[in-house]
Amino acid sequence: MTVIEEKIKTEEATSWEPKILAFLCNWCSYAGADLAGISRLQYPPNIRVIRVPCSGRVNPFYLIKALQAGWDGVLVSGCHPGDCHYISGNLVARRRFAILKDIIEFMGIPPGRLNFSWVSAAEGEKFSKVVKEVVNKIKKLGPIKKLTKK
Amino acid sequence: MENLETSMRDIVKNLLNEQKVDLVIGYQKGTMPLRTTPCFVTKAEDSNKLVWNFCCDLNLIKYLLKDENKGKKVGLIVKGCDARALAVCISESQIEREKVIIIGMPCLGMLDRKKIEAEVAPKEILEARVTQDQIITKGKDFEHTLLKKDYIQPSCQACHYNNPPICNILVGNQPLELESAVDWDAKLAEFEAKPPEERWAYFTELLSGCIKCYACRNACPLCYCKECFVDQTQPQWVGKTTDIADVMFYHIVRALHVAGRCVGCGACTRACPMNIDLRLLSKKLEKIVKERYNFEAGLKTDEPPPMGTHTANDPQEFITEPE
Amino acid sequence: MKEKILLKAQLPKLIEELRKIYRVLAPVKDNGFYVYKAISSADEVDLDFANTKIPPKEIFFPRSEVLFTYKRTDNGIELIEPENSVEKQVILGIRGCDAQSFLLLDKFFAYGKFDDPYFAQRRKNTLLIGLACNDPRSTCFCTSVGGSPFSEAGMDIILTDLGDKYLVKSLNVKGNELLERIPWIEDANERDIFDAMQLTKKALAAIKEELPIEKLNNTFAEVFDEDAFWLQFSQKCIGCGSCSFLCPTCHCFDVVDEESSTGGKRIRLWDTCQFPLFTLHGSGHNPRPTGRQRLRQRVMHKFNYYPKILSEIGCVGCGRCILACSVNQDIRVVFKAVQES
Fold first, then answer.
1. Which of B123, B151, B179 is the last residue of a domain?
2. What band does B154 get if pLDDT is binned at 50, 70 and 90?
3. Do the domain assignments include residue B299?
């Protein structure tokens, strides 16, 4: 069993807390999350962050593999369209995520497992609100069962 | 049908005699009833081997992508769906437009051989004759007549492009009109109205028979990567077992990779040895791309595919925006 | 060797009694075709079939199987054997070609010197009840590879369909033991045995194709280097591997490890020589880089290397490859071409 699965097993036995994987782009969203931290803004501690240079770096494989490994949800956050540090990385990502979300939801994974947002470096408060919303959505959905591999 | 076949053979003969092509790829009679097999003609006198009938369902574009045929001038017999797949390959720079002479065949739909065989199973069909409205199947001690319109392949029933949208020559010069029998928009709407649990159950049930043979990928004219994601080991993306999680991963990702490029030719479904019908998913892919980016694959050879481009104003209703 | 009669109406009773002692696998209709499945009731069984889509090799050599799991501990790596114990099982309705395929698979997996324990254990715990073919398909060519529709090789009991009843013939000690467990089954009379013989003759006469495969043995070696010969077939092949996956004697496999930070598992999976990855070396070199060489390999392996090394033809003539191929590649056409070359 992976570490995640073991944790989930113990958590299910007690009171379950979702585990969410967050991909944050270095220039905007990661800085925004950092700002939330510096400003002492409270938000649920359920996310684990992976810093990427750009949301366009995020391969849809990572998101599906995360769900397969037992993560209850995924959040990908990048710069606002038009403000990407690499000019158009987030525009590429936007199309990719749209298609991925449509396909996954069509096949029956409930909306809420995959989440995407635009958070700039100055939007510490927005970041905390996004995380709160995502965690609440996933708490309602319960632990992930579909797609997970034994 | 016979006239089209004769005209097609004449055109091929001329092309080879005039040395306008090195090779012509078409269909010839198969070794069993209701089957055709690819025919590779290099000599004008062999053009009589080529056939055109209701069993010419294979997608021949795949052969243009093979290394042994790259660089040759090839004449290709295509239907509407094949021509669209070819257009996608040309727009992705996999095939050079000047090196292909597209011999377009107007198509009224191909027979669903597996459905016909299932109808008389476990008896074996030894002979089959197709007329205007009927399919007459004969076996060791039976004769069974079926209505042709009930045994047309589902992807053909929903087709709007029975005349190839791009071609050098349209054989017969008479575009045909086909009434779409299956309303896929309605089918998709009905499916999407179901709760997620039911939809997941449908797909896991559908793919429970998948043996991960990758025939769907091999038959697809748009799956031409030299190294497919399933074969990557560093890192290993998708497990190779038949665990349902691995099966779903493979099919989700293949759908993702052909999104905006899939033309619904049905080659994947035809190749599947386990009779898995992926058409609901491929129709959904077409719908997503049409609704979001107003794009239909395979109609032009100079348009970039939707996943290879972007605009500043793409729809983003799925982005989380807290109040 | 005892011959008995089982009325078709008695078949459910037999299956229920077998189920008390064994795990019973039988042909089941699923999504328009037949597969061998473990059944939970006699209603699921349909013996009115030609042959299954997936060959029964998967019962002994599963599509994917965990060989062992392992955990990383402070004291090193801990190996854990798989939990699945192999129950005693019966496969009902095996055709002669498939029974012969098990004997061929034995030569690869369980020939005594280095038995594959996973395969060997399943083989040991399985009893085979065969079903003779009254009605071979037009794609069957078992007689050309040393088999027959009424072949008994590899089976423990064979059933012959006589219309409203089956002739039941035990072929060895294992078969006799099973018959002793069902004493209510009646003895066959001479008329039944005569009827069965007539059916044998009829079935043999129905197989029209006689492919001189044994004679072609050496001719295959002669055409080995003729690129144009193989190209006429490989040019239409799309390399999907369906032929090898659905072949009852194809046995190549891949072993992969699926790992996480705490441990993992080692899995054996079906593989096919038709995929370029099959012979790809770590250096990047591939001794069979083109489809032409891979197609040649498959044909040579079955019809030239096997006879040379094991004195057996590596094909049982079931015709599944012909039925499965989506581009209508036909091994019988290959033989005819070899004959003419």
1. B151
2. confident
3. yes
Residue B213 has its nearest CB partner, among C236, C240, C327, at C240
Claim to verify: residue B248 and residue B182 sit in the same structural domain: yes
pLDDT at residue number A13: 57
Instruction: Domains for chain A: give ranges and CATH numbers.
Output: 17-137 (3.40.50)
- Report the SS3 class of residue C52: coil
Does residue B15 sit in the same domain as residue B85? yes
Please give the average per-residue pLDDT across C237-259, as a whole number: 93
Residue of B53, B61, B66 to mutate for C, most C C-beta atoms under 10 A: B66
Show which subunits contact C, needing at least 3 CB pairs below 8 angstroms. Answer: A, B
The per-residue pLDDT for range B223-270, each reduced to its tens digit, is 999 889 998 888 888 888 888 999 999 999 999 999 999 998 889 999
Per-residue pLDDT, A78: 95
| Residues B19 and B161 occupy one common structural domain | yes
Report phi then psi at B129, rounded to 5: -125, 135
Which of B192, B248, B259 comes nearest A99 by C-beta?
B259
B142 at the A interface (CB within 8 A)? no
| Residue of chain A whose alpha carbon sits nearest to that of C260 | A2
Could you tell me if C330 lies within 8 Å of chain B, comparing CB atoms? Answer: yes
Across the interface, whether the CB atoms of B310 and A88 are under 8 A apart is answered: yes
For residues C250 and B305, the model is more confident at C250
The pLDDT-based confidence of A57 (bands split at 50, 70, 90) is very high
How far A75 CA sits from the closest chain B CA (Å)?
10
Looking at this predicted complex, what is its ipTM?
0.89
Per the domain annotation, does B128 fall within a domain?
yes
Query: Chain B contact for C305, CB < 8 A?
Result: no
Residues of A in contact with C260 (CB under 8 A): 2-3, 69
Cβ–Cβ contact A96 with B under 8 A: yes
- Closest chain B residue to C236, measured at CA: B38
Direct distance between the N- and C-terminal alpha carbons of chain B, in angstroms, rounded to an integer: 63
Q: Which residues make Cβ contacts (< 8 Å) with residue C43, sequence separation at least 6?
A: C12
Confidence of residue B181 (pLDDT cuts 50, 70, 90): low
**Cβ of residue C64 closer than 8 Å to a chain B Cβ:** yes
pLDDT (mean) for B175-180: 68
**Same domain assignment for residues B65 and B207:** yes
As a whole number of angstroms, the distance between CA C300 and CA B153 comes to: 37
Domain of residue B138, residue span: 113-151
Strand blocks (E) in A5-90: 20-25, 47-52, 73-78
For chain B, give the mean pLDDT.
Answer: 90
Tell me if chain B has a CB within 8 Å of the CB of A80: no
- Name the burial class of residue B264, with classes exposed (0-12), middle (13-18) and buried (19+) by CB atoms within 10 angstroms of its CB: buried
pLDDT value at residue C294:
95
Contact between chains at B36 and C277 (C-beta distance less than 8 A): no
Q: B71 and B118 share a domain?
A: no
- State mean pLDDT over B28-50: 93
Taking CB atoms and an 8 Å limit, are C267 and B241 in contact across chains? yes
**Mean pLDDT along residues C78-86:** 82
Is the per-residue pLDDT at B179 higher than 70? Answer: no
> Is A130 a residue whose pLDDT tops 90?
yes
Q: How far is C215 from chain B (nearest CA, A)?
A: 23
Chain A contacts of B306, Cβ < 8 Å? 95
Does one domain contain both B146 and B184? no
Strand partners, A115: A75
- pTM equals 0.91
Domains contained in chain B, number: 2
Take residue C94 and report the two structure tokens written for it.
Answer: 């095996």
Q: Are residues B179 and B245 in the same domain?
A: yes
Q: Is residue B321 part of a domain?
A: no
Contact C109, C119 (CB under 8 A): yes
| B147/B86 same-domain check | no
> Where a domain ends, among B128, B151, B174?
B151
Decide if pLDDT at C230 tops 80: yes
The answer to whether residue B209 sits within a structural domain is yes
Distances (CA, A) of A9 to A17, A66, C48: 11, 17, 47
Contact criterion met (CB < 8 Å) for C53 and B40: no
- Whether residue C322 lies within 8 A of chain B, CB to CB, comes out as yes
Q: Is C47 on the interface with B (CB under 8 A)?
A: no
Mean pLDDT of C158-181: 92
What are the domain boundaries of chain C? 3-60+82-206, 213-254+271-340
Question: How far apart, in whole angstroms, are the C-alpha atoms of residue C26 and residue C88?
Answer: 14
* Pairing between β-strand B100-104 and β-strand B74-78 as defined by DSSP bridges: parallel
